[in-house]
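A brief tutorial aside. Many learners find it easier to grasp structure tokens once they have seen a single protein encoded end to end. The record that follows does exactly this for Serpin (Serine protease inhibitor). Read the sequence first, then the structure, and try to relate runs of similar tokens to stretches of the chain.
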Amino acid sequence: MSSDTDPSERPADLRHAVARYADRLHGGIGTGHHVASPLGAWLLLAVAASAEPGAGELAGALGMPPDRAAAHARGLLAAPPTAVAAAAGLWTQLDPDRVGRWRSRLPATVPVGPVPGQAALDAWAAERTGGLVERFPVQVDATTVLVLATALATRIAWWSPFDTAPGAELGGPWAARLRHVLRTPTRGHHCWIGTHPVAGDVAVHGTTGDGLRVTSVIGAPDVPAAAVLAAAHDAAAGSLPARSLFDLPLGDGPCWTVTQDPTGPSGEQCTALLPAWSANSRHDLSRPELGFGAAAAALVPEVDRWTAAQAAVARYGRRGFEAAAVTGMAVMMSARVEQSGPRRDAVLRFGHPYAVVATVTDRGPWHGLPVFSAWVAEPEDADDAETGPGPRR
């Protein structure tokens, strides 16, 4: 099978397309505290391309030909990873012939049915996200002829839970606001200082639960959020080079402190201090560059109006991470329906706004995909007792 039709042969192609879509989505959201799922929005467009594979106007938003995106959508929905629940649905009042054509093209896991009421859509969102998203993000009414949606959700426990530390150790403007922060334990977490071509030197922390890795990246306070998010995607993809601590000056940097012990064992080591955080966001997806207008027109050429939005939630704490996003699009028609030496150590301090990206570690079509991403601007206290979702059976 050719690489144009087999998505498993082009994982980098898909990761690049989703990362580029993430730049576009987060760029429009701005620098306020938020969480989003660029993959959830991208996947909805790819499902629309499955239904109407000739929708060439979707290529710009998808970052690839629509038929290739549709192939990726089929692969992703057919084999979700252990850490991420994934679902999509299409509901429509259009004529049976058109629905029949769509049904034959859509991924087999996408159900097709009549447009339900708002309460039923709310129930679908809650069921597909384990109760994390309780309300469907768009409203339907008597003029709605089509609803297309995706849902993504994860709930993991860290393999190595964080320790805690006094908030004053965090440094920066958040230190005085927090009684306790998260401190990396001796094992199971990875910290380094990397260099990005736009963001410059950044501090990186990453840790893992079953099937999901969450990467946090912070730059100097004056580095634009878009550059830090780009660095976070590179770090999550394993393409952000690390700097040796011996190449950095001793003392305080923009978000770390480097020290040297001439008497200790040789080498270098980083630890990190981060706040706990949670976010509950709703995003309007009506900007033309996000592609939903093109998707609506491809599915219903006689469309009168359409709306698209995403509801996303996340919580990051001492014991684990949970996140979910429901992306919805509704189409309305008001008319007729149709190395050696001294030792160096660094403490990385996430004490001002920073970026977070969660990627899948399972092998398969989801490997390396950024499922959720966030800009953390509102830290929360990390209690010594229970912080974060932890495992839920």
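Self-check: The first strand starts at residue 34 and ends at 36. If you spotted this yourself, you are ready for the next section.
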